[in-house]
């Protein structure tokens, strides 16, 4: 009973916000974005946390079946339809879980209709031509995206060939054909406890995420600002690309995430990163401390919709087929987009900046193409234009404005994660990307230095 009420709270909270994550991986969020960490969600439940969470997960897993059963049984009147979270959870318990005690009205209502529910389930098994409820669960399951495991070699600590050799002792491993310093391993490779990971010689970082700092392509000796930096994967990538020379200012608003950022920096061995705990929007572009900043990496809080496949979002009622974006979703996306637009405009206003990369792990046009399109006049007034990161990459932006081909997208299904990258360069820097592309295409015979100088 207690678990059921707790689970209803969690399910409701979830339906109004983000997805449940399978694992406590990187979360791209800020307090203002309304995104919850799994620990926050579970923290909502006073007691029996584990049991409550298990009940939510199980209910979500069985949700398509529960809905079909309830539809077929036609037992819900308008009153109970308004309490569908509770109904889903109790129905799960009746059909697949523990014995239900007749404590509350909803339990009594459903237990008195247990036969109708079980008959509807039996009919569903026949209709779907399967034998057991587990067969049904398998039938309804959305296939998981199986994506290769990527690791980025932290060239501050180890060269790529040595990493290749060492990882190759136990795994199939090869260099990525596009992103420098990135290695590709088979999907199921578990490297969490590998010594090269734990000592910071390699970072477990996806391909799309690794494209961002590479697209910015800062030179050794530059001053670079990472505007929204925690947990710092891209910050330390910048440090590696700059070969530890020059300076990186890593700005982060969230106090707890500053701790993560510092841990990442420590692990990387980078010594040229200055952490700035504060709001990027309060960084005055005309302050002398930013007068030499030549490049800005802007990876602001976003909906995270591009990485939803590693969460359980597809199981949520709000993701059911045909479900239109709810008011809460739209409101949240609008708020995020307004914030993203504001920080992007701010980044473009730093006087010495020649290159700005804007990235999200979102698939939504409103956070991506629309944000970029909306700042184009301002960008042009500062002398910026869109450049083409990784021109050899096929998947470009959505065709919603002229110049969309400059934008880069990765697809959550095809590429394992949905990312978006836009690169702004000052006009006198306009040949940079093209030159980089030519260099990369010839990179097999060229040392990296000759491309970056
Ligand atoms: C998408 S995450 C960044 C991930 C990071 N680039 C990486 O690759 O590890 C966005 C970060 O921006 C931070 N943030 C949000 N609003 C901010 C602001 N106004 N100023 C600085 N940081 C902010 C969030 O707390 C969050 O840590």
UniProtKB/TrEMBL annotation:
<dbReference type="Pfam" id="PF21148">
    <property type="entry name" value="NSUN5_fdxn-like"/>
</dbReference>
<feature type="binding site">
    <location>
        <begin position="228"/>
        <end position="234"/>
    </location>
    <ligand>
        <name>S-adenosyl-L-methionine</name>
    </ligand>
</feature>
<feature type="binding site">
    <location>
        <position position="252"/>
    </location>
    <ligand>
        <name>S-adenosyl-L-methionine</name>
    </ligand>
</feature>
<protein>
    <recommendedName>
        <fullName>SAM-dependent MTase RsmB/NOP-type domain-containing protein</fullName>
    </recommendedName>
</protein>
<dbReference type="GO" id="GO:0005730">
    <property type="term" value="C:nucleolus"/>
</dbReference>
<dbReference type="InterPro" id="IPR001678">
    <property type="entry name" value="MeTrfase_RsmB-F_NOP2_dom"/>
</dbReference>
<comment type="similarity">
    <text>Belongs to the class I-like SAM-binding methyltransferase superfamily. RsmB/NOP family.</text>
</comment>
<feature type="binding site">
    <location>
        <position position="299"/>
    </location>
    <ligand>
        <name>S-adenosyl-L-methionine</name>
    </ligand>
</feature>
<dbReference type="GO" id="GO:0008173">
    <property type="term" value="F:RNA methyltransferase activity"/>
</dbReference>
<keyword id="KW-0489">Methyltransferase</keyword>
<dbReference type="InterPro" id="IPR029063">
    <property type="entry name" value="SAM-dependent_MTases_sf"/>
</dbReference>
<keyword id="KW-0949">S-adenosyl-L-methionine</keyword>
<feature type="binding site">
    <location>
        <position position="279"/>
    </location>
    <ligand>
        <name>S-adenosyl-L-methionine</name>
    </ligand>
</feature>
<keyword id="KW-0808">Transferase</keyword>
<keyword id="KW-0694">RNA-binding</keyword>
<dbReference type="GO" id="GO:0070475">
    <property type="term" value="P:rRNA base methylation"/>
</dbReference>
<feature type="domain" description="SAM-dependent MTase RsmB/NOP-type">
    <location>
        <begin position="139"/>
        <end position="427"/>
    </location>
</feature>
<dbReference type="Pfam" id="PF21153">
    <property type="entry name" value="NSUN5_N"/>
</dbReference>
<dbReference type="InterPro" id="IPR049561">
    <property type="entry name" value="NSUN5_7_fdxn-like"/>
</dbReference>
<dbReference type="InterPro" id="IPR049560">
    <property type="entry name" value="MeTrfase_RsmB-F_NOP2_cat"/>
</dbReference>
<dbReference type="GO" id="GO:0003723">
    <property type="term" value="F:RNA binding"/>
</dbReference>
<feature type="active site" description="Nucleophile">
    <location>
        <position position="361"/>
    </location>
</feature>
<dbReference type="Pfam" id="PF01189">
    <property type="entry name" value="Methyltr_RsmB-F"/>
</dbReference>
<dbReference type="InterPro" id="IPR048889">
    <property type="entry name" value="NSUN5_RCM1_N"/>
</dbReference>
<dbReference type="InterPro" id="IPR023267">
    <property type="entry name" value="RCMT"/>
</dbReference>
């Amino acid at each position: 009973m207690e678990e059921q009420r707790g689970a209803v709270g969690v399910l409701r909270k979830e339906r109004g916000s983000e997805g449940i994550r399978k694992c406590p991986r990187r979360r791209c969020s800020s307090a203002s974005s309304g995104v919850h960490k799994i620990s926050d969600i579970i923290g909502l439940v006073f007691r029996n946390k584990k049991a409550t969470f298990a009940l939510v997960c199980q209910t979500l897993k069985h949700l398509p079946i529960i809905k079909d059963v309830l539809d077929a049984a036609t037992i819900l009147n308008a009153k109970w339809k308004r309490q569908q979270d509770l109904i889903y959870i109790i129905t799960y318990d009746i059909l697949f879980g523990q014995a239900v005690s007749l404590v509350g009205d909803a339990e009594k209502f459903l237990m008195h209709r247990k036969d109708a529910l079980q008959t509807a389930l039996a009919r569903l098994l026949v209709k779907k031509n399967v034998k057991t409820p587990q067969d049904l669960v398998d039938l309804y399951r959305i296939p998981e995206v199986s994506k290769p495991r990527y690791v980025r070699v932290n060239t501050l600590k180890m060269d790529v060939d040595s990493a290749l050799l060492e990882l190759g002792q136990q795994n199939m491993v090869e260099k990525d054909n596009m992103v420098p310093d990135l290695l590709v391993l088979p999907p199921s490779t578990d490297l969490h406890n590998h010594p090269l990971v734990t000592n910071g010689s390699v970072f477990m970082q996806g391909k799309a995420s690794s494209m961002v700092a590479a697209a910015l392509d800062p030179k050794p000796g530059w001053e670079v600002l990472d505007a929204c930096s925690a947990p710092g994967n891209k910050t330390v990538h910048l440090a590696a690309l700059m070969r530890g020379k020059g300076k990186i200012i890593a700005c982060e608003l969230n106090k707890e995430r500053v701790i993560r950022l510092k841990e990442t920096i420590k692990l990387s061995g980078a010594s040229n990163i200055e952490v700035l705990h504060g709001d990027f929007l309060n960084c005055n572009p005309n302050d002398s401390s930013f007068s030499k900043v030549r490049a800005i990496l802007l990876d602001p809080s976003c909906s995270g919709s591009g990485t939803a496949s590693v969460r359980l979002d597809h199981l949520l009622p709000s993701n059911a087929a045909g479900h239109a974006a709810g008011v809460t979703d739209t409101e949240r996306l609008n708020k995020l987009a307004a914030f993203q637009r504001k920080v992007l405009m701010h980044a473009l206003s730093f006087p010495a900046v020649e290159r700005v990369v804007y990235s999200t792990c979102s698939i939504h046009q409103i956070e991506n193409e629309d944000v970029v399109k909306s700042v184009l006049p301002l960008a042009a007034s500062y002398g910026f234009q869109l450049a083409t990161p990784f021109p050899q990459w096929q998947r470009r932006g959505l065709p919603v404005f002229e110049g969309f081909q400059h934008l880069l997208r990765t697809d959550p299904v095809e590429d394992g994660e949905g990312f978006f990258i836009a690169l702004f360069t000052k006009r006198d820097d306009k040949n940079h990307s093209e030159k980089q592309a030519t260099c990369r295409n010839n990179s097999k015979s060229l040392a990296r230095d000759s491309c970056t100088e």
